[in-house]
Every structure is written in C-alpha cells, then in structure tokens.
Amino acid sequence: MSLAEFKGIFWWEWGHRFLGRFLGVMFLVPFIWFAVTGAIQRKEWPRFVLLFLLGGLQGFIGWWMVTSGLETRVSVSQYRLAIHLGAALLLLIAILWIALEYLRPGKSTGMSKRATAFVAAVYSQMLLGALVAGLHAGLIYNTWPDMNGRLFPENAFFASPWLINFFENDGLAQFNHRIGAYLVAAFAVWVYLQGIKLSGYVKTSAKAVAAITVWQIFLGIATLLLMAPVWLSALHQITAAALLCAAVWHAYELKVYPNT
Fold first, then answer.
1. How far apart are CA 172 and CA 144, in angstroms?
2. What is the mean pLDDT of residues 25-39?
3. Are 100 and 114 within one domain?
4. Main-chain dihedrals φ then ψ at residue 150, nearest 5 degrees
5. Which residues have CB under 8 Å from 148's CB, separation 6+?
6. I need a surface site. Which of 19, 51, 172, 180 has the fewest CB within 10 A?
7. Domain of 173?
8. Are residues 120 and 236 in the same domain?
9. Which residues contact 232 (CB under 8 A, 6 or more apart)?
10. Are residues 88 and 203 in the same domain?
11. Closest Cα to residue 122, out of 222, 30, 235, 209?
C-alpha cells in the first residue's frame, strides 16, 4: 500500500475507531448515573451490562479484524469482516428489542416462527453480503439477472476442499448473495401477506418490511450494475440494517400483540 493509499483510508479508520469509543463512553456514563440514582432499577441492570459487554466485544472483534490486513495483505479477512458485522447486528437487535420492551410493553405470547425465521434470513443475507464485500465480489459479474450471460459463475468450485469455495470464491459468493436476496424477497412477501390480515403495529411493521425490501432490491441491483461505488454500497448496507430492524419490530409485535 502506498502512502497516498494509506492517507485515503486513514480518516475513515480513525473516525470509525473514535466513534466506537465515544459510543462506549456515552453509554456507560449515563448508565452509571441512572443506576446510582435509581432511575434504572437493579433488576434491569443485567440487560444494560449485556449491551455494554456486546459493545466491548464488538470493539475487540474490530481490532482482530484490522490485524488481518496488517500481516500478508492490505485488505481485511472476509471471515473476520463477516464476524465483525454479525456481532454489530446482534448488538443492534439487542438494543432495538430492549427499546421496544420499554416503548411497547406487553404480555408475551411466544415468538412467531415465521417472524423469527425472517429475522434469521435477513441476518444471514447480510453476512453473505459481508463476504461479497470482503472478497470485492461486487466488481465482477456486473450484469443482472444473468451473470455475464451465465446462470452460474465460472470456476465456482476450483478450490479444494469444495466447501471452502462458498467463502473464498468471489463469483460463488456473489451468486449466493443473489440467491439469498431472492429468498428474502419471497419471504418478505409472505410476511406482508400474513401481516396485513391483522391490525395495529403488526400490520404497520409488515408494511414496513415490504416497502424496505422493495427499496433494498432496487439498491442491490443498482450497486451491482454500477460496480459497487462506495456511497451506493453504504446506502445498500444501511437499508439492509433498516430491513433487519423492521423484521425485529414485526417479530416483537407478533410476540406481544399477535391478535391486534
């Protein structure tokens, strides 16, 4: 990596690290104050401690991820990138779920299998996206719905053992992400069709899932066709996070208010 290339990423890296540490302080200090003053009851402390620990774990994983780009390569390991994103998403889910328990408390009736499976599907699809990003697989096969005139990428299973190709073959990684998108889209249609039969926020959250899914499909195709410009890739990832939040919201509403 040249000095100019390093300068190009320095402030992004520094800002990301600073923001992570700043968020940790902004969480811990108010939590201690509210705990001491009794604004947060003792029985609720564990959930906030868990959030703080998840944040700390995310920081450690981030450091571990960065070290992979300081050894024999100048880009981070796609494995560690996916783990870093996965941990961040778990933290996001935990924050949102706890917030919903305060904003919309209610009696639990059990988790909806459909809604839980959809959350898992969106989460898994985002991890597949991390593999695509880590392998720079958005820079190849920039056509849709075909892959440069093919249904399946070339040399998809060139490495041995064959299973490793799912994580290290850039063409196969993109193919898997495409298939994952189709499955999530079909799942979102099911969630929507079932959700609009109900009312209240269950129905609203189902509509949110459908709307964000449509927008995300458009962004995904545009990102691919334009060879993954940074701003569009970032918007694609932000929208994926929004879809995950909508899925979690829908799951919570079905858990607490299934018959509304």
1. 15
2. 96
3. no
4. -120, 160
5. 141, 142
6. 19
7. 109-260
8. yes
9. 219, 222, 223, 226
10. no
11. 209
The amino acid at 154: E
Same domain, yes or no: 209 and 117: yes
**Token code pair at residue 4:** 């100019």
Count CB neighbours of 214 within 10 A: 12
Give me the pLDDT at residue 260, please: 58
Query: Is residue 239 located within the same domain as residue 119?
Result: yes
Q: Are 157 and 169 in contact (CB under 8 A)?
A: yes
> Which of 106, 121, 148 is the C-terminal boundary of a domain?
106
- Using alpha carbons, list the distances in angstroms from residue 113 to 110, 164, 178, 187, 219: 9, 31, 24, 12, 28
pLDDT at 159: 85
Tell me if 233 sits within 8 A of 253, measured CB to CB: no
Residue 9 structure tokens: 């990423």
Whether residue 99 sits in one domain with residue 149: no
pLDDT band at 43 (very low <50, low <70, confident <90, very high): very high
Please say whether the beta carbons of 84 and 65 come within 8 A.
yes
Convert the pLDDT of each residue in 177-227 to its tens digit. Answer: 999 999 999 999 999 999 999 999 999 999 999 999 999 999 999 999 999
The residue to which tokens 């075909």 are assigned: 146
CA distance 192 to 208: 9
Task: Give the end of a domain, one of 55, 90, 106.
Answer: 106
The runs of H, that is alpha helices, within 104-158 are 113-134
In contact, 205 and 100? CB cutoff 8 Å? no
**Whether 246 contacts 208, CB under 8 Å:** yes
